Amino acid sequence: MSIIEILIKLSPVIGILLPYCIKLISKVFIGKDNVKLITRSFTLSIFTLISSIILLVFIMLFAHIKISNNDTDIINAFTILVLVILSYAALASLMIKLYYKSKHAYSIAANSMNAKNHSEHIQKVFDEQLTIISNRVEDGNFKIDGKLKYIESLKYKKESKQTRNYRWFSIISWHVIPLGSLIAIYNLNGTHFNTWYVSISILSLSVIINSFIIHSDIKIFDGIIPLTMKLVERHHNEYKKQMNKYYKK
User: Fold this and answer.
1) What does pLDDT average to over the chain?
2) Percent helix, strand and coil across the chain, each rounded to 5?
3) Which residue ranges run through the membrane (predicted)?
4) Is the Cβ–Cβ distance between 179 and 202 less than 8 Å?
5) Interacting residues of 235 by C-beta distance below 8 A, sequence separation 6+
6) Residue % of the chain over a pLDDT of 70
7) With 70 labelled, which of 84, 100, 102, 141 sits at a CA distance of 20 to 30 A?
8) In a domain, 187, yes or no
9) DSSP 113-167
10) How many domains does the chain have?
């Protein structure tokens, strides 16, 4: 098959992917987003797809080991069933994550930024104190007990349970699209769509779409929140509820 024939076959997919690619590239140059955040999103999307493929391989190996007669139909059915169950679990995480985002986005962003800034401050203090200690030791001055105790007293600020939950639900939910794409490819077996370029097109599309989902999630940890009136209303109600609860104590 020539390159032209391949491009002709891929043209519908290219037509679908092109707007997403343009939007993704434009975000690098327009608005608050920067290259680093876009790169992180795309890298995490690829990593999530790879981890989903590795998971598929382990499921198939498990099926081959446990199914003694190596019945292909049973192995395929088992693999699809496990993938569907995992997809629903990831979808449930997606719903919970969206709930967290709609009610606690600003709290999560503030807590994440505070923890991040505090960690950077602690790292700076560690660097300063260890430099002083090493210079004193190098000069034969071992009056460093106070400095060592000061270092021992420094603690990293942990993220809140709410932020940690949002982070984990986000990571799990990022597998919805990759797992769905693998199920789609798996179901193409025995059809005329079961070709390498169709599979690559599906996987490429999943990476690009997932990049937008991941980008939407991780930018909250950098304090960037896309504001909508619905989000304002929900946060207003949530903070009002917390204030009333506080004054009732």
Assistant:
1) 78
2) 80, 0, 20
3) 6-30, 42-62, 74-96, 166-188, 194-214
4) no
5) 103, 105, 106
6) 74
7) 84
8) yes
9) HHHHHHHHHHHHHHHHHHHHHHHHHHTT----HHHHHHHHH--PPPPPHHHHHHH
10) 1
222 located within any domain: yes
Domain of residue 183 covers: 3-111+165-235
Is pTM, for the whole model, over 0.90?
Answer: no
CA dist 80 → 59, 76, 141, 185, 200 (Å): 9, 6, 67, 11, 19
* Residue linked to tokens 């599906």: 202
Helix (H) or strand (E) holding 97: helix 72-138
154: in domain = no
Looking at residue 128, its pLDDT comes to 86
Is pLDDT above 90 for 40? no
31 domain residue, yes or no: yes
Q: At what angle do helices 196-218 and 35-66 cross, to 10 degrees?
A: 130
C-alpha–C-alpha distance, residues 32 and 39, integer Å? 14
pLDDT at 111: 86
Which residues, including other chains, have CB under 8 Å from residue 158's CB and lie 6 or more apart? Answer: 115
